[in-house]
């Protein structure tokens, strides 16, 4: 390479304006580095992006509730924007019967009429005792050993198999461990200490992170990667890791979603932000009524039905499928990534990990601290 071509315009080219790319860019700027952030979508923010419809912040890529146990992460985001006091308390609709989530004393009362933690524990114990599951090998075994068969069949199996398009016996146990099981009358979906939604929506958070940083949308890195690479000393890549390496070992699999949104001429359609449809015949998994995330008082409402889909090229890769085949394939790509000297890989797609927002921020802060 000739020496004059080494003159780079930016310290970092950041591929992907999602939360990972935005936090990394913010940290780099603080340290006096220059960044260009590009995204192939026509907006910034990645999957946390909100679209304003009828003055309601519509979570365009699915409901996003911020939660964390880490005070440093909570302080970090609160230093950028104000958060409201929203607490996620979804309702499950099983063939018309309503139950509180996550699995707690309200759910146990609604299902079995039990009123004390002891009665609830005995009921679950009774359901699982003859099964003898000591080391749950898959999601079904994990779920039954936590909450018994009744809850598994009414509130978990149908939802999970729709969501993942696979038998619960073929899914990893960790997915269901995301949900709390508690023996108190507490409908808070998360156990974390801190929770809320940015006042005015997630775009405010992304705008604050990217304030003063050069950004370009509608730019796919792979359409001209040589030209993009020439612009910066280091690439921060938050897209699909298998695509970065030209699918050399084959394609990683993802789960996708289709969102069907409607504006309705009513001020309150379902009385809650999130209602899950846990039976196996309703084709969607949940209906989101976006205004309730911000206690909206608008005259109209916007609802979104979420239909899980098998992923194929051209659809959005929303969830990594962390089964053994895909995890093994990912490790091969990660070994290649480890050999790259001027590329930093991060985020849900490049790390092929079922990360929540607070975990993405923690991971971006760590990478920024290690590499900048
Ligand atoms: P992304 O947001 O996916 O950003 C990556 C960006 O890279 C995208 O904008 C993409 O367009 C861009 N890109 C990819 N390839 C290229 C390319 N070749 N050229 C240019 N740009 C490219 N987390 C929570 O904490 N709470 C929740 O309630 C929650 N709900 C969720 C609901 C759904 C339906 C989904 C899918 C996720 C949810 N999450 C939630 C997780 C959260 O969305 C992620 O943790 C976070 O948004 C990931 O940020 P990221 O930057 O890694 O990825
Ligand atoms: N889940 C379920 N019933 C529900 C909600 C969730 O069985 O009513 C299971 C399902 O397998 C799902 C997992 O719990 O994939 C994690 O749920 P979460 O709400 O965290 O999913 P996400 O927000 O990531 O889509």
How would you characterize this protein structure?
The chain contains ten helices and 16 strands. By secondary structure, it is α/β, with parallel strands linked by helices. Among the domains are: 154 residues, Rossmann fold, CATH 3.40.50; 74 residues, no CATH class. Helix 4 crosses helix 5. The two termini are 24 Å apart. The N terminus is likely disordered. The structure holds flavin-adenine dinucleotide and uridine-5'-diphosphate. The site of uridine-5'-diphosphate has 13 residues, from helix 5.
CATH uppermost class of the domain at 10-61 and 200-251 and 322-371: Alpha Beta
What gap, in angstroms, lies between the N and C termini? 24 Å
Bound molecules: flavin-adenine dinucleotide, uridine-5'-diphosphate
Shape: globular
Strand order of the largest sheet: 7-6-12-13-14-11-15
Mind telling me the C-alpha Rg?
Answer: 22 Å
Q: Based on helices, strands and strand pairing, what is the structural class?
A: alpha/beta
Number of beta-strand segments: 16
Largest sheet: 7 strands, mixed
**Percentage of residues assigned to helices:** 25-40%
Order of helices and strands: EHEEEEHEEHHHEHEHEHEEEEEHEH
Query: Average pLDDT across residues?
Result: 96
Could you say what the CATH topology of the domain at 10-61 and 200-251 and 322-371 is called? Rossmann fold
| CATH architectural grouping of the domain at 10-61 and 200-251 and 322-371 | 3-Layer(aba) Sandwich
What is the percentage of strand-forming residues? 15-25%
SS field, number of helical segments: 10
The poorly predicted ranges are 1-5
CATH superfamily of the domain at 10-61 and 200-251 and 322-371: NAD(P)-binding Rossmann-like Domain
């Amino acid at each position: 390479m000739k020496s004059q071509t080494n003159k780079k315009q930016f310290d970092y080219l950041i591929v992907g304006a999602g939360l990972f790319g935005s936090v990394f860019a913010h940290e780099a700027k603080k340290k006096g580095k220059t960044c260009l952030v590009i995204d192939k979508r026509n907006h910034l923010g990645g999957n946390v992006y909100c679209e304003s419809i009828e003055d309601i912040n519509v979570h365009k890529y699915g409901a996003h509730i911020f939660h964390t146990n880490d005070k440093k992460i909570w302080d970090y985001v609160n230093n950028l924007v104000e958060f409201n006091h929203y607490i996620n308390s979804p309702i499950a609709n099983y063939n018309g019967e309503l139950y509180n989530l996550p699995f707690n004393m309200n759910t146990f009362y609604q299902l079995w009429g039990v009123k004390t933690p002891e009665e609830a524990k005995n009921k679950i114990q009774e359901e699982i005792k003859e099964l003898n599951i000591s080391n749950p090998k898959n999601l079904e075994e994990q779920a039954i050993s936590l909450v018994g068969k009744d809850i598994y069949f009414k509130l978990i199996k149908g939802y999970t198999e729709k969501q993942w398009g696979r038998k619960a016996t073929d899914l990893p146990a960790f997915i269901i461990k995301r949900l709390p099981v508690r023996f108190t009358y507490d409908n808070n979906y998360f156990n974390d200490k801190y929770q809320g939604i940015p006042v005015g929506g997630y775009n405010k958070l992304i705008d604050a992170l990217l304030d003063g940083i050069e950004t370009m949308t509608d730019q796919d890195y792979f359409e001209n990667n040589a030209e993009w690479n020439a612009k910066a000393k280091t690439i921060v890549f938050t897209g699909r890791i298998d695509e970065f390496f030209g699918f050399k070992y084959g394609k990683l699999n993802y789960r996708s979603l289709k969102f069907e949104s409607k504006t309705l001429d009513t001020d309150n359609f379902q009385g809650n932000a999130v209602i899950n449809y846990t039976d196996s015949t309703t084709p969607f998994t949940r209906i989101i009524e976006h205004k309730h995330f911000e206690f909206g008082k608008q005259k109209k409402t916007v609802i979104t039905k979420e239909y899980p889909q098998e992923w194929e090229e051209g659809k959005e890769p929303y969830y990594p499928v962390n089964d053994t085949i895909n995890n093994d394939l990912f490790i091969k790509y990660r070994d290649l990534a480890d050999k790259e000297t001027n590329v930093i890989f991060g985020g849900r797609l490049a790390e092929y990990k079922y990360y929540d927002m607070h975990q993405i921020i923690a991971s971006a802060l760590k990478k920024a601290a290690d590499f900048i």
